[in-house]
Every structure is written in C-alpha cells, then in structure tokens.
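ligand=S-adenosylmethionine
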Amino acid sequence: MLYEATDCSNVYGIDSASNFLKMAAETFKHCTFINHDVTKTPLPVHADVMYARFLLSHLLDVVELVNRWVEELPNKGKLIIEELEDIETDNPVFQRYLAINIGLVASQDAVLYIGKTVVDGVYDADVLCNECISIPITNYQAATWFYPNTVTIWEQEQYVLDNINAKERKELSDELLRIKQSHDMREAGTWKLRRVVLQRV
Ligand SMILES: C[S@@+](CC[C@H](N)C(=O)[O-])C[C@H]1O[C@@H](n2cnc3c(N)ncnc32)[C@H](O)[C@@H]1O
C-alpha cells in the first residue's frame, strides 16, 4: 500500500468491483475507496503519486490509457505501474492453470502478461524506471493466489465453462487447494514483474 510505503495518510483506492472495495475498506480504515471505472477519465480524485498493479492485464489500449492517467498527474507527479511479464514454473498444475487464464483473458481481448507491452510503450512522460523484477514464489504462495479463481471466476466465465470440462476444473481446483493446505514452501518458479515509473513533465 502507498500508505505504508510513503507514510502518506491521504490515500485513495479506485476499483470498479464493489466486493473488492468493501474488503479493502474493512482492512484499510484510514483510506478512502471509490467505485469508478479507471478507463474513464478524468478520474474522481487527483494524486501526486498513482499506483496500478495487476490492473492493465484486464484493460484494452493500455499505453494510450497510461498516457491519459499521466495527464491526471500534477507537474512532476509520478505513476507507478507493476504488471506481470511472465510466470516461469515447471509445475504442470500451475502451468495448466496459467494456460487457462491466458485464454480467458484473451477471450476478453486483453493480455495476461501485459508487462511485455508496457515495456515498449511510448509515454508522454519522463521514464524514471523501466525494469523487470524476478520474484521467487513458493508452491504455497502460488496455490494460495490461484485457488480462489477456480471456485469463483472459473465457474462464472463462459470461456472457461465452454473450454474446460467440469472434471478437469474440479481436479485442478482440488489439487491447488491440496498444495495450499500442505503449506509446501519449496520454490514453484519465478514471477517476472515489469515495473515502470513515469513522471509527468
Ligand atoms: C488482479 S486484481 C488486482 C488487484 C490489486 N491491484 C492487486 O495488485 O492485488 C484486478 C483488479 O482490477 C479491477 N478492475 C478491472 N477492471 C477495472 C476497471 N475498468 N476499473 C477499475 N477497476 C478495474 C478488478 O475489479 C480487480 O480488483
């Protein structure tokens, strides 16, 4: 959270999903959360520092959108973006989970590993940082992050229902839950995270 990183008490969070906003508001009581579609500018609040993580992989025309967010900043204001560039893993369960999610996101015309697009963007801003960070992840962490989608989004999304049969969905979900509950702390692979920091000129 920017609050912890900057010690700034004036922090706003924007999301278009009311359930996530409710959860965030319960956890971070000193912050203000606003229901808004971030593809619609002007944004409802203006900040010196904006932070977007794992958001652009849900959205379209991302470089153009990032440039519109930059316009929302004051002079010298900063926009920090962190997006997945790749996930490397030898675990066949994680590989299959990721392949399904790549297909799901693609069915919405978006790109899961959008960090690969962000890296080459042409921005109307000073680029203070454009780096790839490698984060080792354990089996427990991967399963903990992946499992919830298999019992929520996967059971609602037509792409998943049409392309992955119920038996395979259940087997993958059960296996992810088993790994999560085993607290297996062995390394599962590496998350490649693209971090770009832009400053308005
Ligand atoms: C993968 S989650 C990432 C959540 C958080 N940023 C993090 O790093 O853990 C993606 C979030 O983007 C939100 N989202 C997707 N499209 C959006 C839009 N057009 N406007 C606002 N929020 C959006 C979803 O509701 C969801 O909370």
